[in-house]
Design goal:
Keywords: DNA-binding, Exonuclease, Hydrolase, Nuclease
Radius of gyration: 19 Å
Order of helices and strands: EHHEHHEHEEEHHHHHHH
Number of strands: 6
Strand content: 5-15%
GO molecular function, one term: exonuclease activity
Largest sheet: 6 strands, mixed
Protein name: 5'-3' exonuclease H3TH domain-containing protein
Pfam family, one: 5_3_exonuc_N
Structural class: alpha/beta
Distance between the termini: 22 Å
InterPro entries: 5-3_exonucl_a-hlix_arch_N, 5-3_exonuclease, 5-3_exonuclease_C_sf, DNA_polI_H3TH, FEN, HhH2, PIN-like_dom_sf
Number of helices: 12
């Protein structure tokens, strides 16, 4: 049976890099990328995919910045030493038979989501997403599984419900309501995860929340009405783009283990 492994690559690289308390340096970047390469090797050995894609952010402005110029404005930039070392790391992956994808104006999340959704919609087999990014967990609603490399654990429908208090298909509505400080997604003021989950459990969807809770004569109802536009903007920002022109075929993503390389 065919199996796709879609790797949220910078999620792994940056987690490995930031795990070291040492100051930024070429040496730190080199060591981190060696460990990251070992992480990729472990992923491939663990899951034995027939097809693989390593998605990276291209860098620069994306379609989300066009919607909301303040998107990610407070996120710390990637250390220059790490950014400069990435091309050689990506080439090492390609040499080892791991296809690399990064496209202008979209994020790696969009590349992963597009690839996984096409794979599932064509009923090609199992789809695994290697990430700790909460946004990508919505793909579980469509039949994918998420693998947390750092904890060696599967994330599935029950895991999402236990972690976030909602079903995977409600996850983007949850993130729109509560916002995401890491990415600069504003959400609705004074709504955290528990309140957002309670609203979605009661009403089912963001539109239903606004139709029902939005007429409540309470401070919460007032905030929902007053911040309606920013709420729906937040919903657009957390939505995964699934129609990216990837420029690859399944044949190009076919993976065969390169003995001694990965």
């Amino acid at each position: 049976m065919a199996k796709l492994l879609a790797i949220d690559s910078l999620n792994i690289v940056r987690r490995v890099y930031e795990a070291s308390p040492e100051p930024d340096s070429d040496l730190k970047a080199g060591i981190a990328l060696r460990h990251a390469f070992s992480s990729f090797r472990t992923l491939l050995e663990t899951h034995a995919p027939t097809h693989v894609l390593a998605a990276f952010d291209y860098g620069g402005k994306t379609w989300r910045h066009a919607l909301y110029p303040r998107y990610r404005e407070h996120r710390a930039p990637m250390p220059s030493v790490l950014r400069e070392a990435l091309p050689a790391f990506q080439e090492r992956l390609r040499t080892a038979g791991v296809p690399v994808a990064m496209l202008p104006e979209v994020e790696a999340d969009d590349v992963v989501a597009t690839c996984v959704m096409r794979w599932l919609n064509e009923n090609r087999g199992e789809a695994i997403v290697a990430t700790t990014d909460k946004d990508l967990h919505v793909l579980i609603a469509h039949g994918a599984l998420v693998w947390d490399h750092f904890k060696n654990e599967w994330h599935d429908d029950p895991w999402v419900r236990n972690k976030f208090g909602v079903a995977p298909e409600q996850l983007h509505d949850l993130l729109a309501l509560m916002g995401d400080a890491t990415d600069g997604v504003p959400g609705v003021s004074k709504i955290g995860m528990k309140t957002a989950a309670r609203l979605l459990t009661a009403y089912g969807s963001l539109d239903a929340v606004m139709a029902g809770a939005g007429i409540l004569k309470t401070p919460l109802g007032e905030r929902l009405r007053a911040e309606r536009d920013i709420l729906y903007l937040s919903r657009q920002l957390v939505q995964l783009k699934t129609d990216v022109r990837l420029g690859v075929t399944w044949k190009m993503l076919a993976y065969e283990s390169h003995e001694g390389a990965v």
